[in-house]
Amino acid sequence: MFEIIILLILSAVAYFITAELIPNLSDLFIKAGLFGIDLCKTNKKKVPEAIGVVSGCVFLVTSFIFIPIVFGNGLMDTQNFPHNEFAELLAGLLSICCMLLLGFADDVLDLRWRYKLLLPTMASLPLLVVYYVNFNSTTFVVPIPLRQWLGISVNIGFLYYIYMGMLAVFCTNAINILAGINGLEVGQSVVIALSIIIFDIIELRGDQYKAHTFSLHIMIPYLATTLALLKHNWYPSKVFVGDTFCYVSGMTFAVVAILSHFSKTVLLFFLPQIINFLYSVPQLFHIIPCPRHRLPKYSEETDLLHASRTIIVKKDMTFITKLILQVLTMLHLTDKVEDEDCININNMTLINLFLIKLGPTSEVQLTTTLMAFQVFCTCVAFVVRYPMASYFYDS
Amino acid sequence: MFEIIILLILSAVAYFITAELIPNLSDLFIKAGLFGIDLCKTNKKKVPEAIGVVSGCVFLVTSFIFIPIVFGNGLMDTQNFPHNEFAELLAGLLSICCMLLLGFADDVLDLRWRYKLLLPTMASLPLLVVYYVNFNSTTFVVPIPLRQWLGISVNIGFLYYIYMGMLAVFCTNAINILAGINGLEVGQSVVIALSIIIFDIIELRGDQYKAHTFSLHIMIPYLATTLALLKHNWYPSKVFVGDTFCYVSGMTFAVVAILSHFSKTVLLFFLPQIINFLYSVPQLFHIIPCPRHRLPKYSEETDLLHASRTIIVKKDMTFITKLILQVLTMLHLTDKVEDEDCININNMTLINLFLIKLGPTSEVQLTTTLMAFQVFCTCVAFVVRYPMASYFYDS
């Protein structure tokens, strides 16, 4: 308990330092050519980009300073020092630090796609090794209805490591593709972080309390520095967060999911990101034409956002394209305008889906609605995790 | 032995990957505005800057891949897994990764001086914690002649951690200020790395063999990736290495010095850097005027380098300035031209000192001479470490 209070104080300090540092360093970023123009505003000011590196660095330093405190008891008695827990924390921080480096390098250098998939995999290596050493449990508990075929648990062995590596890649990229309007990347990360913290607090009385304490040690300073970032990134954004932030956030969630053993629950908190990913698949894999940007379209007259659109040429349509369009139309998940030669549909992102359902919306309203949806999904996740899980698993 | 062979193979692969990646990524760096103009050349081409981040990343990834191999034996028997050694390696890599991030941020953003001193201190925190947990030996063995006053050993307690923190700051900055001509930063780092490796191999048969094996695990992939960097950075440089490289190198040497317990020996290998630092002190502390750059001056006609110079106005001279000038003149360590009002002396860096002793020299000759001096200092270090140390310490 004592260490959590210290952590809260440290995190509060980290919040104020981050909130102070960001405007102070903004000019340096613009001078270095790290800036963007906000496409959804009438003024075309330079907005500093990749500011996630500032909050990420403060987050890391806070965690470093916290190390001697969290292991304070162990330090009195170095014979019984919990080296394995210490190694876990170090591996987690190492993975996050790598991701911070790679995210920043990506923002500065604009790396190619293959590096974007390769790098999170590399960065998660220390994590997987520490998992292997400390747990090496590669067993899934089978839900009760399936046990007659599969038994109580299934050991998937090496595949479990593939699953964890993919989890890191998914988390880092999922946040990155549900983005584009002021405050959304940071806002959704705040909701996910809060969800994990609530889940940790509930589980603190369970037998996995150690794992959940570990998770809190990572999530609290993360949340504090992220809130400071949100303060400057909220509509109208004075800073952009960059890939840096999305990568660090994704890896932080992956670290907690893997080392605290609740990857399935974390995935439940990623429901909007999963929906957005699945909805994007036809465009990501170029089954439906994908323009370079799928941001909503800004109308200067009304100051509102409209869904952006793409055009499918009818004679280029394959069987799969037709099938996907049919399914989406049936489910009312697309806004389709057809003429003789072409089909004009909205770009398939969750943001555009909300826009076709809500009609033209102001940017701040849209971010708020999407964050409300994220909160709703967290509630769903808790329902799935608690009342429903007892039908599928022994409590 | 088996793992060293694997490490050698991995490092050879890392060498080739780094050597390939650097020219492939160079354009990305120039496009991102990360480039410099070589002041000691007649052509004014853009040379990509901060390429140390490429070799640094490959070095880190190689070390990650090596983790499961070095702990292979431990993994068979997870009950007796050496968690403390694992934590050491993780903490070392974490400090290096932090330094890579901060060095790159410095190259991109051009951070202020206070951050340059603060950041290595922060980055060395994980290192100090793991030292505290695993060793917490803060005792210096006293040389025999002093023992009648101080006893056999002195425990300096908390000061030892200050010493280690300062070591990290010193190592990172010492390489950074002995720089400015093609290949020098990387060349000196290669010589220091080789010196440490030779020292490790000599000591492998001693009772500290574990610490020296640890050191080899870090130094071999470091050396391989650094050699690949040298290939492109050697005269005429096709790439510049940036602060990134100096920071990573300094921290790598500090990690090895601290966790393998031979910080005094590592400092012996830093003799040219220490000489350069001491010689620079009057200018670094502005006792003697210090221009923004102290690079040698390039003469286009002769293609040779000359010592660059600074001017001291006589009436501004304080007592300390006069004293320093007197001592330097007495020791023949300066080239002084005096008139009525001013004194014109060479900028006080080791590079300029060599130039006033050797006369105008070509750039490649100068780098080679300075590297030869570094090798000479390594020989001196070994004489001090082995034959001489036995007079001062029990063997």
TrEMBL record, chains A, B:
GO MF annotation, one: UDP-N-acetylglucosamine-dolichyl-phosphate N-acetylglucosaminephosphotransferase activity
Record-listed E.C. numbers: 2.7.8.15
Keyword Glycosyltransferase: yes
InterPro entries: Glycosyl_transferase_4, GPT
Predominant location category: endoplasmic reticulum
Membrane topology reported for the UniProt record: Multi-pass membrane protein
Superkingdom field: Eukaryota
A Pfam family matched in the record: Glycos_transf_4
Annotated localization: Endoplasmic reticulum membrane
Associated pathway: Protein modification; protein glycosylation
EC class: transferase
Cofactors (names): Mg(2+)
Transmembrane segments: 51-74, 86-105, 158-180, 186-202, 240-259, 266-288, 364-384
UniProt key word Manganese: no
GO biological process: dolichol-linked oligosaccharide biosynthetic process
UniProt keyword list: Endoplasmic reticulum, Glycosyltransferase, Magnesium, Membrane, Metal-binding, Transferase, Transmembrane, Transmembrane helix
Catalytic activities: a di-trans,poly-cis-dolichyl phosphate + UDP-N-acetyl-alpha-D-glucosamine = an N-acetyl-alpha-D-glucosaminyl-diphospho-di-trans,poly-cis-dolichol + UMP
GO cellular component: endoplasmic reticulum membrane
Family note: Belongs to the glycosyltransferase 4 family.
Role, per record: UDP-N-acetylglucosamine--dolichyl-phosphate N-acetylglucosaminephosphotransferase that operates in the biosynthetic pathway of dolichol-linked oligosaccharides, the glycan precursors employed in protein asparagine (N)-glycosylation. The assembly of dolichol-linked oligosaccharides begins on the cytosolic side of the endoplasmic reticulum membrane and finishes in its lumen. The sequential addition of sugars to dolichol pyrophosphate produces dolichol-linked oligosaccharides containing fourteen sugars, including two GlcNAcs, nine mannoses and three glucoses.
Protein name from the UniProt record: UDP-N-acetylglucosamine--dolichyl-phosphate N-acetylglucosaminephosphotransferase
Lineage: Eukaryota, Metazoa, Ecdysozoa, Arthropoda, Hexapoda
Originating gene: LOC113506319
